[in-house]
């Protein structure tokens, strides 16, 4: 009857009201999201503008650079790498560099002779309980133990300095002998007798003058292991040679005493040419 | 020419691989280039050796000249022999001025004063290595050329490499001659042996790769990095562990190739530790045991143990200390607080 009809209308109205509420909520949500989208779009545009500006600044020539600060992260990193490389190169050029390790210090000794960089050697030192050598790559014929016994405990700077002198002098002597064998092998007769430390060289060489060749024999003794020049030089020629040759032998002896071996050879090779 | 010399030359040539015979004869320099041209090096070795002997006959080779060929052969193929390392000590601190002629003279004089029947040959090489070949006889017999000893010595170093193959009784004489000739005081045998002479040199001369931490800009060695699989679905679960193992391995073994050793021997004289209930030994004596690791290349195989997953990294220091301690024979006694294994039998 009537009541049933009324009930039905009531429920319909109720459902309509619920639907209306839902719709309103949806619309509210939608409006909120749309507003958020607008916000984000605005942010994006701002950042894009910033990036454009920075790129323009990097490519631009002069112009109005309003903001000198704020270099890009990439540029900072590149500068850092360049600066570190330069520092490492500086260490290498000074001949000795060290790095702290867990238990001490590890040194790298770079040797050189008259502008040519030669071998690098390593020395791993422990600090406790006392300063001692843990590992190293120093050639076995360098008197490392002797030098360490004298200076390692008391004066580490002196120790390193003496060791550096030994190593540099050794590579210097070796370099001279190698240069001699490489560039003047035609003047050397027989083999060049040398030893591990390159501190005794004995060989025969020939000097040509007026289309005749005269043999000399030389014995170079490097008594000071920290020195790359010989302490004792004996140059001899055949006993029946003319006096001029004996004079030449004395002159050569002086040259060997004063300058590097290969340079001495170069100088009297060219002197001979000018005499002719 | 002596029959024995002819036979010796013949047998030495037969040892050489056929392709190498000509170069070795050229290095020897005893036969002239024209003489060498007359030999057909494509025939069987038997015939080549006969031809060589024939030519040596023409030049009247003596045993000393024949011995030089043997040195050349052994210098090119040193790994056919087993080498031991000896260390010399000197008391004084004088600067060493090693004079080769002096060394040779002193060595020969010392050896010959004790034993007349010896054949001694010297040969020097570019890397300051002095090779000495000694064939030993007795007061009544001529030297046995087939059991010659070899000595390799680098001047101004305290290490001598000896490949004996001779009566042990001649060894003290040889050692004494070496000590006198090189101006050292005494000599002892190290616990280091291998077929690879160069590896032994690398170990005692410290030429092997050690990983030093420095700032020095060494050129970074390109390590074989397996290309990352393009398939992103593959994930390496234990990637960090693998990297840790690589790092630890590199710290211990360095980047470069390892010296070549064939074995490491550990003689254990430790007490057998077991559950007191399972009383294996009634007497409380050290359980004698010998552990020997053998490999065509022991240190490389140790280096690859951890990356291959066969052992934990880091490896036991007993294994990794081999190059640094310059020994591959160890005696391990009970720990008395100090790290064992440095007990060297004098």
TrEMBL record, chain A:
Encoding gene (name): Cenpo
Predominant subcellular localization, coarse grouping: nucleus
Q: Which PANTHER family match?
A: CENTROMERE PROTEIN O, INNER KINETOCHORE SUBUNIT MAL2
**Which family is it part of?**
Belongs to the CENP-O/MCM21 family.
Name the UniProt key words of this record, in alphabetical order: Centromere, Chromosome, Coiled coil, Nucleus
Superkingdom per UniProt: Eukaryota
Q: Which Pfam families match?
A: CENP-O
What is this protein's name?
Centromere protein O
One cellular component term (GO) for this entry is: nucleus
Record flagged with keyword Acetylation = no
Q: Which organism is it from?
A: Cochlearius cochlearius
UniProtKB/TrEMBL annotation, chain B:
Which branch of life, at top level? Eukaryota
UniProt GO BP: CENP-A containing chromatin assembly; chromosome segregation
UniProt source species:
Cochlearius cochlearius
> Where primarily located?
nucleus
Q: Which InterPro entries match?
A: CENP-NAC/CAD_complex, Chl4/mis15/CENP-N
Concerning Pfam families, the annotation shows:
CENP-N
What is the name attached to this protein's record?
A: CENPN protein
The compartments listed are: Chromosome, Centromere; Nucleus
Q: Which UniProt keywords apply?
A: Centromere, Chromosome, Nucleus
Family, similarity comment: Belongs to the CENP-N/CHL4 family.
Its GO CC terms are: chromosome, centromeric region; nucleoplasm
């Amino acid at each position: 009857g009537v009541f049933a009809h009324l009930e039905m209308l009531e429920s319909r109205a109720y459902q309509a009201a619920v639907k209306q509420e839902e719709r309103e909520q949806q619309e509210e949500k939608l409006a909120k999201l749309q507003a958020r989208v607008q916000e984000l779009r605005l942010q994006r545009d701002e950042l894009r503008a910033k990036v454009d500006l920075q790129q323009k600044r990097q490519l631009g020539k002069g112009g109005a650079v309003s903001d000198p600060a704020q270099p890009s992260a990439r540029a900072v990193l590149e500068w850092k790498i360049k600066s570190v490389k330069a520092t490492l190169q500086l260490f290498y050029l000074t001949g000795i560099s060290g790095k702290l390790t867990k238990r001490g210090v590890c040194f790298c000794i770079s040797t050189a002779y008259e502008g040519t960089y030669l071998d690098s050697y390593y020395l791993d030192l422990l600090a406790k309980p006392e300063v001692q050598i843990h590992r190293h790559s120093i050639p076995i014929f360098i008197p490392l133990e002797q030098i360490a016994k004298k200076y390692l405990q008391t004066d580490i700077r002196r120790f390193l300095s003496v060791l550096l002198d030994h190593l540099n002098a050794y590579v210097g002597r070796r370099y001279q002998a190698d240069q001699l064998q490489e560039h003047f092998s035609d003047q050397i007769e027989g083999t060049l007798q040398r030893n591990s430390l390159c501190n005794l060289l004995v060989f025969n060489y020939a000097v040509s003058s007026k289309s005749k060749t005269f043999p000399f024999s030389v014995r170079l003794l490097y008594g000071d292991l920290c020195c790359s020049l010989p302490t004792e030089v004996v140059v001899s020629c055949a006993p029946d040679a003319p006096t001029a040759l004996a004079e030449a032998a004395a002159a050569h002896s002086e040259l060997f005493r004063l300058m590097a071996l290969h340079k001495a050879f170069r100088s009297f090779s060219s002197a001979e040419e000018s005499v002719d | 020419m002596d029959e024995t010399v002819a036979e010796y030359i013949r047998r030495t040539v037969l040892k050489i691989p056929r392709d190498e015979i000509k170069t070795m004869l050229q290095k020897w320099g005893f036969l002239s280039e024209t003489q060498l041209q007359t030999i057909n090096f494509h025939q069987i070795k038997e015939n080549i050796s006969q031809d060589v002997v024939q030519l040596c006959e023409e030049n009247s080779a003596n045993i000393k000249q024949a011995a030089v060929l043997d040195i050349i052969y052994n210098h090119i193929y040193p790994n056919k022999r087993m080498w031991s390392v000896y260390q010399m000590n000197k008391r004084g601190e004088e600067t060493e001025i090693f004079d080769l002629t002096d060394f040779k003279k002193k060595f020969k004089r010392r050896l010959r004063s004790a034993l007349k029947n010896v054949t001694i040959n010297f040969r020097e090489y570019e890397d300051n290595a002095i090779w000495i070949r000694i064939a030993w006889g007795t007061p009544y017999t001529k030297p046995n050329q087939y059991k010659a000893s070899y000595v390799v010595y680098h001047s101004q170093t305290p290490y001598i490499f000896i490949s004996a193959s001779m009566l042990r009784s001649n060894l003290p004489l040889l050692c004494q001659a070496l000590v006198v000739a090189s101006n050292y005081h005494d000599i002892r045998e190290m616990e280091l042996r291998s077929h690879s002479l160069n590896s032994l040199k690398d170990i005692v001369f410290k030429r092997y790769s050690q990983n030093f931490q420095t700032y020095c800009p060494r050129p970074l060695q390109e390590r074989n990095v397996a290309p990352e699989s393009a398939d992103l679905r593959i994930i390496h679960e234990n990637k960090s562990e693998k990297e840790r193992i690589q790092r630890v391995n590199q710290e211990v073994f360095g980047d470069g190739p390892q010296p070549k050793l064939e074995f490491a021997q550990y003689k254990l004289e430790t007490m057998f530790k077991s559950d007191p209930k399972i009383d294996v030994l009634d007497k409380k004596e050290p359980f004698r045991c010998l552990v020997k690791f053998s490999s065509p290349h022991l240190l490389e195989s140790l280096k690859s143990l951890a990356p291959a997953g066969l052992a934990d990294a880091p490896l036991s220091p007993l294994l990794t200390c081999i190059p640094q301690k310059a020994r591959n024979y160890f005696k391990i006694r009970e720990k008395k607080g100090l790290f064992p294994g440095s007990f060297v039998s004098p």
